[in-house]
Write a structure and sequence with these properties.
Number of strands of chain A: 0
Largest interface: A-B, 41 and 31 residues
Largest sheet of chain B: none
Oligomer: heterodimer
Helix content of chain B: over 70%
Radius of gyration of chain A: 17 Å
Shape of chain B: elongated
Order of helices and strands of chain B: HHHH
Order of helices and strands of chain A: HHHHHHHH
Shape of chain A: globular
Helix content of chain A: over 70%
Number of helices of chain B: 4
Structural class of chain A: mainly alpha
Structural class of chain B: mainly alpha
Radius of gyration of chain B: 45 Å
Strand content of chain A: under 5%
């Protein structure tokens, strides 16, 4: 019975979690690895999780696993910098949607992982403050103030991106 | 005249555009915004972020990826059973070996003791009875 539930959940949620991971990790292979780890970990704990919290649990697990990966990456900061440069170079050949997605991923990956998760849950998963607060085990007022902070950061990042685009019009 | 740079309503603007305020608060903020340029600018800025974020188009999970996860999960599902079977087999063989060891050692000890006593007693009696040539 649980296996059917798991299969349905996998079909319904894997795309959402994959896209969340893509936005914060900006790397398909890493997103795939974490997605797989997330669902395997969820499958092991599924029986002890309340059905109405499945989605919350999945996002929280994905968040923690991505966070660990980001910490490991930060230890190899130099490699990440090279990866950024490579991304900009590849932008020349990508299509319009992919370019836009890259800008969003680039911006979200500069936020703290917790802030990126808040943005993900509000904007892309259409959760209200109450649901987000439940997912992150915090208060609604904390959700609001952290979202405002994340948005302010995003405004700065978007402004920087625009400046970069003006400097290098051929790239984007 | 002192220029006003901050507005008390600013804190509520994010919740306002997210539709998180109560109806009464929402109406109050809406009324205020119509006459406050600071709040109008703030809302425009916050909405820029929304527009920016909504330009993201969801990407598909790579083909066959869900099946790959299902396969991994079925392997993990089979493993605990196999682990139980193996643990049970090991435990059973340890217990059997232990029991067999006890039974064997008891048997050997009993035989050896009887034998030794018999031989010893016989030898001793035989010695004293002069059966042995020294």
């Amino acid at each position: 019975m649980n296996n059917n539930k798991f299969e349905v959940l996998l079909q319904n949620e894997s795309k959402k979690i994959y896209n969340y991971l893509l936005k914060i990790l900006r790397n398909k292979e890493d997103a795939e690895d974490i997605l797989q780890e997330t669902f395997i970990a969820f499958h092991k704990k599924m029986n002890s999780v309340n059905e109405s919290y499945y989605k919350n649990y999945l996002f929280r697990t994905a968040y923690h696993k991505a966070l660990n990966l980001i910490k490991k990456r930060n230890a190899k900061n130099k490699l990440v910098t090279n990866y950024h440069e490579m991304e900009h170079f590849e932008d020349k050949q990508t299509k319009n949607n992919e370019q836009k997605n890259k800008l969003v991923k680039d911006a979200l990956s500069q936020l703290k992982p917790e802030e990126a998760l808040l943005i993900e849950l509000q904007f892309y998963q259409k959760m209200n403050y109450k649901q987000i607060a439940e997912t992150l085990e915090t208060t609604q007022s904390a959700v609001d103030s952290k979202l405002v902070r994340a948005k302010k950061k995003l405004i700065k990042i978007i402004t920087e991106q625009k400046k970069m685009q003006e400097k290098r019009p051929s790239i984007v | 005249m002192k220029q006003k740079n901050e507005c008390d309503f600013k804190k509520k603007l994010n919740a306002y555009i997210a539709g998180e305020l109560s109806e009464m608060e929402h109406n109050k903020v809406r009324e205020h915004i119509s006459s406050c340029h600071l709040c109008q600018n703030e809302i425009r800025t916050l909405q820029q972020v929304d527009t920016f974020l909504f330009q993201y188009t969801e990407e598909e999970v790579p083909a066959g990826f869900n099946e790959k996860i299902l396969n991994s999960v079925s392997k993990n599902r089979a493993n605990p059973f196999m682990r139980k079977v193996i643990s049970f087999s090991i435990a059973a063989s340890v217990i059997i070996s232990f029991m067999a060891g006890i039974m064997l050692s008891n048997g050997l000890y009993a035989e050896t003791t009887d034998f030794d006593i018999t031989i010893g007693e016989d030898s001793l009696f035989s010695y004293f009875e002069g059966d042995y040539d020294v």
